Amino acid sequence: MKVTEHLAKGECPQVSFEILPPLKGKSIESIYDHLDPLMDFKPAFINVTYHRSEQMFRKRTDGTFEKVDIRKRPGTVGICAAIMNHYKVDAVPHLICGGFSREETENALIDLNFLGIDNVLVLRGDAPANESFFEPDPNGHRYAVDLLCQVVRMNQGIYLEQDMQGGVKTSFCIGVAGYPEKHFEAPNMETDLGHLKNKVERGADYITTQMFFDNRRYFEFVEKCRKMGIQVPIIPGLKPITTKKQLTVLPHIFHVDIPEVLSAEILACKSDKEVEIVGKEWLIAQSRELKQAGVPGLHYYTLGKPSVICEAVRQIL
Q1: Would you please indicate which residues are annotated as catalytic (active-site) residues?
Q2: I want to staple 192 with a disulfide (CB 3.0 to 4.6 A). Which of 172, 186, 266, 316 is the partner?
Q3: CATH number of the domain within which 227 lies
Q4: What total number of domains does the chain contain?
Q5: pTM of this structure
Q6: pLDDT digit string (tens) for 224-251?
């Protein structure tokens, strides 16, 4: 079932979760152990992130070094298929521009279609850890909207081989990312919203937001989107803070603000166990307010902390 079909049910809240593929060498059981407690809440769908390869230097036997590409978290397509088979729940694989050619993207979409996976979330992705700026694969996409258009074309039966006739039309429901606090590379919010509107006009079916810790940011973002004519569902993305270190890590990596009240409470904690309690209570308060406002769903970034998410979701359902 497509994400938009889940949202159209009108049940509030529709709960969904996002997970990371395990590091290379780990088994699928690590995914099941992570998801088992979350499945009690009957999530509408599970997002699975995609990760680009990273370039590393490997020492040769003669003492010189060679540059090699290593993907530390492979398996998104296979994990999605396993989740759907194991839990009978819809899976939403992320598709990213970085590190993938157009041909690799097309082949991944063909595999997803064969597996009966109806949904994708298209993203540009981040620059490699050792680089300051994003650069696409030589035969890849520079922007998420270009990746989006490739999926739309496949939905129309148009493949990369221009002389191919009678290509099967796929039927992917396409999600894109929204940034209540602006994408960090955008010069201003208006420009960022213009890019988002372009994605919707070109075929995006729904928006999932970057995490935020102040609900006013989400409500203001939705209001601005509606004024610009963006009418697709906008799902809020939520994450608990569970360690003091995240007070600096989250703003640095995800470019989000942490409210002064929340940061003060966390700084007053004597241990990360206390931080976990504060973060969970803040997440519960956020979720309750959003639920009361009638948001289309609540999307939780679990990122290794399913127990905290479980305790919070149990309080609001």
Answers
A1: 18
A2: 186
A3: 3.20.20.220
A4: 1
A5: 0.92
A6: 999 999 999 999 999 999 999 999 999 9
